Amino acid sequence: MRRLPLVVGLFLVATAGFGQAPPRLLDHNTLGWVVYSGDHQLSEKWTLHTEYQLRRVKLLGAQQQHLARLGIGRQLTDRVTVSGGYTYFQTHEYGRYPTVTGRPQPEHRLYQDVTLTDALGCLQLEQRLRLEQRWLGQRAEEGAGDVQQWDYQHRIRYQLAGSFPLQGPTIDDGEWYLNAFDELFISFGRNVGNNVFNQNRLSGGLGYQFSGNAKVELNYLNQVTQHATPDPASGQPVFEINNGFRVNILYDLDFTGGP
User: Fold this and answer.
1) Residue 159 forms beta bridges with which residues?
2) With contact defined as beta carbons under 8 Å apart, do 127 and 164 qualify?
3) For a 10 Å CB count at each end of the chain, is N or C smaller?
4) Phi/psi of residue 14, each to 5°?
5) From the CB of residue 149, how many other CB atoms can be counted at a distance below 10 Å?
6) Residues forming beta bridges with residue 140, ordered by sequence position
7) What is the pLDDT of residues 29-79, one digit of tens each?
8) 25-41 and 238-251: which strand pairing?
């Protein structure tokens, strides 16, 4: 499809040299993520984006990460939307080979993205290309005390998402639908370790539209993540193979005073 971005090139970069890679350590975790997001209409062209993600492991038994995001978006055409904003991210100690010990690691991000929407019959497609600037807080080796420094990194993300109605040609109020997405993360620039391939997320499941501005989705989630540094004891690269569920709560408000 000529409208698709050059995502194939990103996959080739992510997988280059994997055949020559040393043996890996695999860390399996069971995920339980709850995600709220809302795109609130400020005017005909402008929206305010709000988002919060509560991420747990051992289903919901232990903390993994927290994410809070605030952004602004502008619709350029019927197909194209651009947006940008700020994200606060926090990672806790989890897994057999934790990247964080002791106190949680904070992270600040700025992001910019462009989103393209298309329809293939009843299938609604959305492509998003996002660029992130990341400041990762580093504490002392024992994981205690204040942040000692902020490591700066770049990351690019490509997401392809789709939704398909189950009760007619379109998704209408009071109807069920299928939804799925895949998102690839590539790190680049200074301070990037072994994880040029940062991670990939694959998710899909069942959604229900209460109204045009309120939906809920229950999805299966698969996440593959490469750690930036090898395991200190063995020197082997570490990959997380995480599986679980993701609940998406989507609720939009209209501040324009329209119907």
Assistant:
1) 128, 183
2) no
3) C
4) -65, -35
5) 10
6) none
7) 999 999 999 999 999 999 999 999 999 999 899 999 999 999 999 999 999
8) parallel
- Where b means 16+ CB within 10 Å and e means fewer, 208-225 reads ebeeebebebebebebbb
- The CA distance from 19 to 146, in Å, is 40
Cβ–Cβ under 8 Å, residues 29 and 57: yes
H/E run at residue 53: strand 46-57
Q: Which secondary-structure segment (H or E) carries 241?
A: strand 238-251
> What is the architecture, at CATH level 2, of domain 40-251?
Beta Barrel (2.40)
Which residues are CB-neighbours of 8 under 8 A, at least 6 positions away? none
**What are 3's two structure tokens?**
């409208």
Q: What is the pLDDT of residues 136-175, one digit of tens each?
A: 998 887 777 889 999 999 999 999 999 999 999 999 999 9
For β-strands 25-41 and 149-165, DSSP reports them as unpaired
Using the CB atoms, write b or e for 166-189: b if 16+ within 10 Å.
eeeeebeeeeebbbebbbbbbbee
CA pair distance 196, 16, nearest whole angstrom: 10
Amino acid (one-letter) located at 113: D
